[in-house]
């Protein structure tokens, strides 16, 4: 259950990061509300997962999922340029996260 919650929390990290950017400095109300809902849910899920998982591993997985999904969202929306180097580095990041799960 902790791993499932950690993955969901990592996904919410991407949600609040994208919402924070879309809020344009908290000037747009919908992304601002989404940010203020997703952020505490994401952190609460991380905190709960840390009850069963090592802190360093849990945090690395949470950040890895959030960062990867945020960059992929940027690729999909055209806000960031997808290059072979970026794609390979994202694969390395995902591989590292999976590796941490395997060895923990």
UniProtKB/TrEMBL annotation:
Pfam families reported in the protein's UniProt record: Multi_Drug_Res (PF00893)
Main location: membrane
Membrane topology term: Multi-pass membrane protein
GO cellular component: plasma membrane
Single GO MF annotation: transmembrane transporter activity
Transmembrane segments: 33-51, 58-76, 82-103
Subcellular localization: Cell membrane
Gene3D superfamilies, A to Z: 1.10.3730.20
Keywords: Cell membrane, Membrane, Transmembrane, Transmembrane helix, Transport
Keyword check for Transmembrane: yes
PANTHER family in the record: GUANIDINIUM EXPORTER (PTHR30561:SF0), SMR FAMILY PROTON-DEPENDENT DRUG EFFLUX TRANSPORTER SUGE (PTHR30561)
UniProt similarity note: Belongs to the drug/metabolite transporter (DMT) superfamily. Small multidrug resistance (SMR) (TC 2.A.7.1) family.
Protein name from the UniProt record: QacE family quaternary ammonium compound efflux SMR transporter
């Amino acid at each position: 259950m902790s791993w499932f919650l950690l993955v969901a929390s990592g996904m919410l990290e991407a949600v609040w990061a994208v919402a924070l950017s879309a809020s344009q400095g908290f000037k747009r109300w919908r992304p601002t509300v989404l940010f203020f809902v997703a952020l505490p849910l994401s952190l609460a899920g991380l905190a709960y997962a840390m009850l069963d998982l090592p802190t360093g591993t849990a945090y690395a997985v949470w950040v890895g999922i959030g960062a990867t999904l945020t960059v992929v969202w940027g690729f999909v929306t055209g806000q960031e340029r997808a290059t072979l180097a970026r794609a390979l580095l994202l694969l390395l990041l995902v591989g590292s996260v999976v590796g941490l799960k395997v060895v923990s």
